[in-house]
Amino acid sequence: MKPSRSERVRATPPKLFTYVLVGFIALLGLTCLYYGSSFAPGSRKSDEFDGSSPARAGFASNRDGESRVEVPRSIPICDSKHSDLIPCLDRDLHHQLKLRLNLTLMEHYEHHCPPPERRFNCLVPPPAGYMVGLIPIKWPVSRDEVWKANIPHTHLAQEKSDQNWMVVNGDKINFPGGGTHFHYGADKYIVSLAQMLKFPGDKLNNGGSIRNVLDVGCGVASFGAYLLSHDIIAMSLAPNDVHQNQIQFALERGIPSTLGVLGTKRLPYPSRSFELAHCSRCRIDWLQRDGILLLELDRLLRPGGYFVYSSPEAYAHDPENRKIGTAMHDLFRRMCWRVVAKRDQSVIWGKPISNSCYLKRGPGVQPPLCPSGDDPDATWNVSMKACITPYSVRMHKERWSGLVPWPRRLTAPPPRLEEIGVTPEQFREDTETWRHRVMEYWKLLKPMVQKNSIRNVMDMSSNLGGFAAALNDKDVWVMNVIPVQSQPRMKIIYDRGLIGATHDWCEAFDTYPRTFDLIHAWNTFTETQARGCSIEDLLIEMDRILRPEGFVIIRDTSENISYIKKYLTLLKWDKWMTETTPNGDSLSAAKDERVLIARKKLWSVAAISEL
């Protein structure tokens, strides 16, 4: 006979206490395990982890702003098959996660980061035979040749052999300067464009009024490479598509370029950033979705900006392509663009200089004007919009961007400063402060830096672009990154005649490993920590995009600098290091600011395995 309910209750206190105690201990253990893995820069469960599968990693939240992660004994090395890892453009991961991406809209080439449990948390190794530390090919020679061992992918040479993109020549890869539409050289093509536009002296920069160019579907970026001698800087853009390593070749050559695609999201550049956009047989369906891709170019072009569209000669007699050309012409007409010049299969359209044409369009004409509440400078994870971005009242009235010609543009306060609440005096002070800061940096670097050994530079928190402006007398280019929380300031970068992109440093940057010779981080760790993201994971991401023999300059609080120093040996950034207390200036937010400069070693999986 079963005991009554009251008898059972009276009989079980010892058992009940035991069950509660065991449950509490189990809960405490799970809590410790959870927080332990969250604080750690990935789950380094074993120092023997070989990186052959994803480790729990990447930019995990730091739930206790004051606590520090215990520094591990080592950081694992990724498997060699991941030597070209781009975490947020990893199509194998897309497949594994079963992401439903629209291939027609190019979503599979857009930025999709792995969840924390699928992020790699290891050091990306260079390919076998990597040559940069032994016999580096320096700029400007690197424009025309690179070591094959550094990018051991030669399929493009065979695929584009008839177009002079690149030629394998023994242990090097040569770049004759050809392209899909300019087989005989980008230099001659650039002159022909200047002639079409009737610019003085056949100079495409037109006296400094054309400075920033967007090259869409750029291949190995030879167009951008040859624009540099014209004092024009191009953001050469291409996806990580079937021509998988085209941007990697461009970056290895030392040419400003980045991974990106005209898909569903706005490009990470503010409105009115470029004087000229270029598409040479870029195989983009400009008419899709009510012309939304052309409208994205419209957002990015300045008043009176140009769009150069070059298609193969064979298209001239193809009925289908002639039909597409007619439809594009009709769309441009409704967008108030006009044909400025045409020669053979190259057409140059011009954008209007004011809102006057828009206001004269009949009711219901498509595409519509964007609503007044739309922010054309909001770009991070913002969908493209099938509408025309009208000019501000000021631009409409003045009928131009208000920017002075290059190179005066670099230091002249741009009109859009007032949109971010910065006065011309503050802008000038910022410029002068960074000039002094960079002079001090170079004094510290001088014993270690050989001539032309630094070419590709990243500034992780660019503010107003003062760091890049101070480097203008060096033969370098700077990828100016504006953290997402400060994205309105990106327009000032472009108004100075510089280039860059908005980014969230809680995620990986969309570029290849071994991209930059020098990375500058001013308060980046403090800002990243304040957003609840991991210092450790940011260090590992910086290592991924830093070239062997490259330098980091980290300017931050003394607390953060002391902590980062504990990772230098683990990251193999201990070839050379110096630390100093900088002089205080108008930008020094912290009284205990420190500057750390470190140099990354050239290492290989084989050499480490022998230790």
UniProtKB/TrEMBL annotation:
Q: Which InterPro entries does the UniProt record give?
A: Put_SAM_MeTrfase, SAM-dependent_MTases_sf
Q: Which domain of life is it from?
A: Eukaryota
Which portions of this protein are annotated as coiled-coil regions?
Answer: none
Residue span of region Disordered? 43-67
Q: What top-level class of enzyme does the UniProt entry assign?
A: transferase
Q: Which UniProt keywords are listed?
A: Glycoprotein, Membrane, Methyltransferase, Signal-anchor, Transferase, Transmembrane, Transmembrane helix
Give the membrane topology.
Single-pass membrane protein; Single-pass type II membrane protein
Residue ranges spanning the membrane: these are 16-36
Q: Record's Gene3D superfamilies? A: Vaccinia Virus protein VP39
Where in or outside the cell is it found? Endomembrane system; Membrane
The EC number on file is 2.1.1.-
Membership in a protein family: Belongs to the methyltransferase superfamily.
How is this protein named in the record?
Methyltransferase
| Native source organism of the sequence | Brassica rapa subsp. trilocularis
Q: What is the lineage of its organism?
A: Eukaryota, Viridiplantae, Streptophyta, Embryophyta, Tracheophyta
